[in-house]
Specification:
The chain has about 475 residues and is mostly helical. It is built from 28 helices and no strands. The chain is elongated and about 115 Å long.
Length: about 475
């Protein structure tokens, strides 16, 4: 639009069209005084009354800027409508003059187009704070006579305030493509994206799929299309998370951080996205940066502990939770998290101790896995089945039983005999460990339930009886 106005000024600098459009653009850029001075050049066409009206119109038009659109300044929007309603009768007289229609009509089409509609609803609009539901009729008429992006957008705003979200989405879609001297398309897309995501949360499965896909498409366009105020970035990150697009949430949070480097909420959003993506080391780094900016935040230290736990840095996680409780003895989650980490460490300890024994016996276990069951059993004949060695040996005999059952170098009878012998030995080793009190530790029992080497034993009656005894 700006390029078109510049070309028009080169061809016909004194035309009413060139002057009116340049005045509108000056008002849009915040130079209302310059726009009003420019309007004086319209005096030969519209007279003193017309200049005065157009100057007032430019001042009103300058009230709706891209900045207050993003600030959700509803008060300014209502005042804008109220002042148009006050000016509308005078504007109508000027606009209906033949010479004026030839010149100022382009500006009127996009900024002050609806003087007839607003004149008809002047009493309602001049109230200053009209009921949003009552404004819907005004805008239903306005967008018919003036299909401007600004008015479709404002129509959508008041539809939302009236809880008509489906109709609001339709209005915002029209605002995306309708011509508008105020660049409302991005703000309309932003509002549409949020509405679609909110509607998806309560929709049926098929409807949710369609709404989320449309919201995701708009969100990606917004992510590519410039920068935003900090509150808008926060909302966009929230929508991205609700759409399970954590990579896009991370990208938006990083753009937010670049634009507002001192905004701790940008760091918080980035940390959330990193955690949801499983990038725990990055998340811990982000949380440490946050703690430099907000030292002594016990809740934040607690969150860092969760990131460390998820990244398997158990000692660091415990240290963070002890620190959180030092900073705030009433921190609601840190003590419980210490109990969680204790459970995880004990479970891993139970697994790792047996694993270490299996690794010590790895030469024999390799033979068993390779099908050399007799050699494997012979290699551990001198082992004493005490402590963690018992379940490790049971693993070896279970693997040997599976290998013996598949040994085609001996007769079927011999295969069955050896497989049974090894399986019985495996169960006997576990039973002996039970009798020695080894499985009194609940985490050792959980290890037994999850050990894959024992899968070939689980259908045996002796193994089932052992498990029943252990679970009593």
């Amino acid at each position: 639009m700006r390029d078109a106005v510049t070309r028009l000024e080169l061809v016909a600098p004194d035309s009413v069209s060139a002057i009116s459009w340049r005045a509108a653009l000056l008002a849009l850029d915040g130079d209302v005084g310059g726009a009003q001075r420019l309007c004086t050049r319209l005096r030969p066409v519209v007279g003193d009354e017309g200049v005065e009206v157009f100057q007032a119109g430019v001042r009103i038009a300058g009230m709706i800027t891209e900045e207050n659109l993003w600030n959700n300044d509803l008060g300014t929007r209502v005042k804008f409508l109220s002042e148009i309603a006050t000016l509308a009768p005078r504007l109508g007289k000027v606009m209906e003059a033949p010479d004026a229609l030839n010149g100022f009509s382009e500006l009127a089409t996009y900024r002050l187009p609806s003087y007839r509609v607003f004149t008809g609803h002047a009493d309602l609009l001049r109230g200053g704070s009209p009921d949003p539901k009552k404004l819907l009729d005004v805008f239903a008429e306005t967008v018919k006579v003036c299909p401007s992006g600004l008015y479709f957008y404002l129509h959508g705003v008041f539809l939302v305030l009236s809880d008509q979200h489906v109709e609001a989405c339709a209005a915002m879609r029209k605002a995306l493509t309708a011509p508008s001297i105020v660049p409302v398309a991005r703000k309309a897309r932003y509002e549409l994206t949020i509405m679609l995501a909110n509607r998806a949360a309560d929709a049926s499965v098929l409807a949710r799929w369609a709404l989320e896909n449309e919201a995701r498409d708009h969100l990606r366009m917004l992510a590519r299309d410039g920068v935003y105020p900090a509150p808008a970035y926060r909302s966009l990150c929230t929508v991205a998370r609700s759409l399970h697009d954590d990579a896009l949430a991370l990208s938006l949070s990083e753009a937010w951080r670049r634009r507002y480097p001192d905004d701790v909420n940008a760091l918080r959003a980035r940390g959330i996205a990193e955690g949801r993506l499983g990038a725990y080391e990055r998340q811990i780094g982000t949380l440490n940066t946050l703690l430099e900016k907000t030292p002594g935040d016990a809740d934040l230290v607690n969150v860092r502990g969760l990131a460390q736990l998820n990244g398997n840095a158990f000692a660091d996680a415990a240290a963070s939770w002890f620190e959180a409780l030092r900073l705030d003895p009433r921190q609601p989650n840190a003590a419980g998290n210490l109990a969680v980490i204790e459970s995880r460490v004990r479970r891993r300890q139970a697994i790792y101790r047996v694993l270490l024994e299996k690794l010590r016996l790895r030469a024999a276990l390799i033979l068993a896995h390779q099908g050399q069951h007799a050699e494997a059993v012979k290699a551990v004949a001198a082992e004493k089945p005490g402590g963690d060695t018992a379940p490790a040996l049971a693993c070896l005999y279970a693997v040997a039983a599976r290998a013996a059952a598949a040994d085609t170098k001996v007769s079927p009878e011999e295969r069955g005999k050896r497989a049974e012998e090894y399986a019985v030995k495996a169960v006997d080793l576990l039973r002996g460990a039970h009798e020695a009190g080894y499985f009194k530790d609940a985490w050792r029992l959980k290890y037994l339930e999850g050990e894959r080497d024992f899968d070939m034993l689980r259908q045996r009656e002796d193994f089932k009886k052992l498990m029943d005894a252990l679970n009593k």
